[in-house]
Design brief:
nine-stranded antiparallel beta sheet, IC97/Dnai7-like, beta-tubulin binding, extended, alpha+beta, IC97/Casc1_N, 34% helix, single chain, microtubule binding
Length: 766
């Protein structure tokens, strides 16, 4: 191995000098870089100060210009809020007076101590006969209804603690009703020998006026007749029937079937299913039989047991002593065939009806174990087979109608010969349900009421049952709750967003695979004020959804709508709305066969309301729109906002001008009629419109389809060149071709014959 050469002192000094020079050069470059960075920082700070001054001057000038508008808007909203406060106070006073006039014996559920005492009294009530038990159960449900009414008041007042307490008390009241029913059932079974039909095994039943609301029926298997496989109850008990397997017919058990009209489970459901509560919640239980009384020498001996005042549910399939055998464990559970009558007022949107049972442990509706579901629409009899005995309900997806394809608001047409409408508006939503197709659901909304405006136009036979609601006027929340109870659910919640499937154009009508699952809902506070804006301007403007509202660069705090002023109060039909918003044109690709009806697009966010250059006909949006949307929000304020409007552009973008609300944004360009219709509308009527839109959640749950691309014109087919026809040769009398005279070059002159024909005849020779 070669030894490393030792460096001389001169070489070491040279290397050290070279290293020092490199370090010095590195230090010098670092200092130069730091100096340049410092100069850039100072220049940027100076520029920022200039931009800050410029932005402050612009904001001050804008504030001075908009001060009268903001003052007028503040006065308008103060008067409107006062009118709404008076209406709310009057409604509460009327409710309290009506409650007092009914001499209600139940406590005010807002009083926690009084409510707890009432719960203790009801819970300690001994078992009652079914008729009396039904009255007490109705009392419990009325208390639950009062809890819901007062909960809405607490939500309006912003009292979150009281609102949460009333939700809990509502559930407690409904659990009390279940307890009362269980005690009445135990008492009835304990005295079954007094009123049981020995041939059929019926212990008894009790029902409301027509058997389509609340009813309860009991069957006790004291006889144990395995040949009688079906139990049937009368029509007043919903014509309930069950085909029982042998293991039930040979066991000492009772069966209870109970129908209630209250769905207390769907609000807790963890999946997307909900009960169609209009069909009722059917509870089917197997119960243990208590020992019967015996009579000896004139004495009646009544055994006392734990089943005297309480029920004991028996799990199905019924456990057997030989269940430990492998063959017994592997045997299939025999199904129970259940059928009962459901009301004819339902509009079931699923092509095939669905039945599910409530899984208490997982807090959800599940269809496991339920099969062969069928509805005979002539008799409205629902039948299904099940290997589980629990609470059953006709179910459907909570998002069966969503996302909306589009929505719009327009004034209602004038009545008779009146020049203006009666102050009501039409809210039209096009759902995603295949059962509705392209037929929208339309509501007429007036002062404190709403009704289903196009009930007669909804497709038959699915929605025929809704035609009886054409003239029913209810508060918006009550009307939408009634539609949901019948099967048309149009009040989505934030928890429904993950289950919404966004479909492409080709499958928007249902079927096929979607392009994505789940949607992002809008900010609740901004959505509420946007609904108020639409409610206020709706008497004088058409308002239509925009497909860009759910797309970038607009976020969850941005709400976008298209508006057009109502120029003729008689041209306010759906076809007029379609003409305006479907015929919008792109000014960059203007065509003479399209027209601009004065349509404009509004952006609403926490800053206020402004105009944006956004139309549904645009294939894409300009990059500058992202700057406009973010301007003045978050970190994009002051110098940062000015720099964003200038960077990469020859001319700086103008800053967006935000008005307090949509009304003040539109007033400057509105005609006299539009302004008068907005200003003269009753505050309570516009608030009802806003409430309906808020309940429908049109901003959060609308996803419009992409516009269909215009087909490219087909090229005209190229014409093949046509050959000149070849003249047929002239023949003489013998059929031989006639020779043409030739010119000097030997070519035949084609005009020789024509010249010969044109030549005058020769003169005769004298």
């Amino acid at each position: 191995m070669a030894k490393k050469k030792k460096l001389s002192a001169e070489e070491k000094a040279a290397k050290a000098a070279e290293k020092a020079a490199k370090e010095e050069e590195k230090r010098r470059k670092a200092e130069e870089r730091a100096r340049r960075e410092e100069e850039a920082r100072l220049a940027r700070e100076a520029e920022d100060r200039e931009f800050e001054r410029e932005e402050a001057e612009r904001v001050a000038a804008e504030d001075a210009t908009l001060a009268p508008t903001r003052e007028e808007s503040a006065g308008f909203h103060a008067r409107r809020d006062a009118a709404l406060a008076r209406r709310s106070l009057n409604a509460r006073d009327e409710y309290e007076w009506e409650r007092t006039a009914r001499c209600v014996s139940t406590p005010d559920p807002r009083d926690g101590r009084a409510f707890d005492e009432w719960v203790h009294v009801v819970d300690a009530t001994p078992p009652l006969p079914f008729a009396d038990a039904f009255e007490l159960m109705e009392t419990c449900e009325s208390v639950a209804g009062e809890c819901e009414a007062y909960r809405a008041w607490a939500a309006e007042d912003g009292d979150d603690d009281l609102r949460a307490a009333l939700i809990i008390r509502k559930r407690v009241a409904r659990r009390l009703a279940e307890t009362v029913a269980d005690k009445a059932t135990a008492s009835c079974l304990d005295r079954a020998n007094e009123h049981q039909d020995e041939e059929t095994g019926y212990v008894g039943y009790v029902a409301d006026f027509n058997g389509l609301g609340e009813w309860c029926a009991l069957w006790a298997n004291h006889v144990k007749n395995p040949r009688k496989k079906t139990i049937d109850f009368p029509g007043s008990a919903g014509e309930f029937a069950a085909e029982l397997p042998k293991q039930v017919l040979t066991a000492a058990v009772a069966m209870r079937a109970r129908r209630t009209a209250v769905d207390a489970h769907s609000e807790l459901c963890a999946n997307e299913l909900m009960a169609v509560s209009g069909a009722g919640i059917l509870s089917v239980d197997l119960l243990s039989l208590p020992p019967l009384a015996t009579t000896r020498k004139g004495w009646t001996v009544k055994p006392r047991s734990s089943l005297t005042d309480a029920i004991e549910r028996v799990r199905y399939p019924i456990p057997r002593p030989d269940d430990d055998d492998d063959d017994a464990r592997g045997a299939a559970t025999p199904a129970v065939r259940i059928s009962h009558v459901i009301p004819p007022t339902l509009a079931l949107v699923d092509p095939r009806p669905r039945v599910a049972w409530w899984d208490e442990s997982n807090q959800k509706w599940t269809e496991d174990g339920v099969s062969d579901v069928n509805v005979d629409y002539d008799t409205m009899r629902l039948s299904f087979s099940t290997t589980v005995l629990e609470r059953f309900a006709v179910v459907q997806s909570r998002v069966a109608m969503f996302p909306y394809r589009s929505w719009h608001v327009r004034p209602a047409p004038p009545v008779s010969n009146a020049r203006a409408s009666n102050g009501s508006v039409i809210i039209s939503v096009e759902t995603n349900s295949p059962a509705l197709g392209q037929t929208p659901v339309e509501f007429e909304v007036g002062d404190g009421w709403a009704r289903l405006a196009n009930a007669d136009e909804l497709p038959a036979p699915t929605f025929v049952a809704l035609r009886e609601m054409r003239d029913v006027k209810l508060p918006p929340e009550a009307l939408l709750a009634e539609l949901s109870r019948r099967g048309v659910h149009l009040t989505p919640e934030a928890r429904d967003a993950p289950f919404v499937e966004i479909r492409s154009n080709s499958v928007a009508g249902g079927g096929g695979e979607g392009s994505g699952t789940g949607i992002a809902t809008k900010d609740p506070a901004n959505e509420r004020v946007a609904c108020e804006d639409v409610g206020i301007i709706a008497p004088g403007y058409f308002v239509h959804s925009s497909r860009w509202c759910a797309r970038e660069p607009f976020g969850v705090g941005d709400l976008v709508v298209r508006v057009a002023e109502v120029r003729d109060p008689y041209l306010v039909d759906a076809v007029d709305v379609h003409k305006i918003f479907a015929n919008e044109h792109d000014p960059r690709e203007w065509r003479p066969d399209r027209y601009d009806w004065g349509m404009r697009t509004l952006l609403r966010n926490e800053r206020g309301c402004t105009f944006v250059d956004v139309k549904d006909s645009y294939v894409s949006l300009d990059d500058s729109l992202e700057v406009i949307v973010r301007d003045g929000r978050g970190e994009r304020v002051g110098a940062s906002a000015v720099r964003a409007r200038r960077e990469g552009r020859d001319e700086a973008l103008p800053a967006p001008v935000y008005y307090p609300d949509a009304r003040s944004t539109l007033r400057g360009d509105s005609g006299r009629g539009g302004r008068e219709r907005m200003d003269d509308a009753a505050a309570t009527a516009t608030a009802t419109t806003a409430e309906t839109l808020r309940l429908l959640r049109v901003f959060s749950f609308t996803r419009e389809r992409e516009p269909e691309p215009e087909p490219e014109p087909e090229p005209e087919p190229e014409l093949e060149p046509q050959l000149e026809p070849v003249p047929e040769p002239e023949l003489d009398e013998d059929g031989n071709p006639v020779e043409k005279p030739a010119d000097e070059d030997g070519d035949v002159d084609p005009d020789a014959d024509a010249a010969e024909e044109r030549a005058p005849p020769p003169e005769p020779n004298p």
